[in-house]
Amino acid sequence: MLILSRKTDQSIIIDGNIEIKIIDIDEGKVKLGISAPKDIEVHRREVYLQIQEENKKASVGKLDLKEIGKLLKK
């Protein structure tokens, strides 16, 4: 893990096309601004984990018996 110190209005660049800027620091909270290409999804960690869990739930039970049989023959 890379740990950096930044002040308000300073930023870091990731992979040349993602910028994370410190917008404000107030009462122990940091407000970030993130600029990234539209094809890159940006989520808070808790939201990302919820999305992953919902995707797992949605994928269970989607194969019917014919599909399972085809997979077993391979």
**Number of structurally distinct domains:** 2
What is the CA-CA span between the terminal residues? 41 Å
Main sheet summary = 3 strands, antiparallel
Q: What is the beta-strand fraction? A: 25-35%
Helical content band: 25-40%
Strand order of the largest sheet: 1-2-3
Question: How many H/I helical runs?
Answer: 2
Structural class: alpha+beta
Shape: elongated
Rg computed from alpha carbons, rounded to a whole number of angstroms: 20 Å
Q: Can you write the helix and strand succession as a string?
A: EEEHH
Average pLDDT score: 89
Report low-confidence residues grouped into runs of 5 or more.
none
Count of β-strands: 3
Fill in the keyword field for this structure:
74 residues; alpha+beta; 2 domains; 3-stranded antiparallel β-sheet; 27% strand
Blueprint (SSEs and pairs):
Layout: E1 11-14, E2 18-26, E3 29-35, H1 45-59, H2 65-73
Structure in words:
The chain is α+β, with helices and mostly antiparallel strands and 74 residues long. The chain has 2 domains: 1-40, no CATH class; 43-74, no CATH class. The chain is built from 2 helices and 3 strands. It has helices spanning 45-59, 65-73; strands at residues 11-14, 18-26, 29-35. The protein is elongated and about 60 Å long. It starts with 10 loop residues before the first strand and ends with a helix.
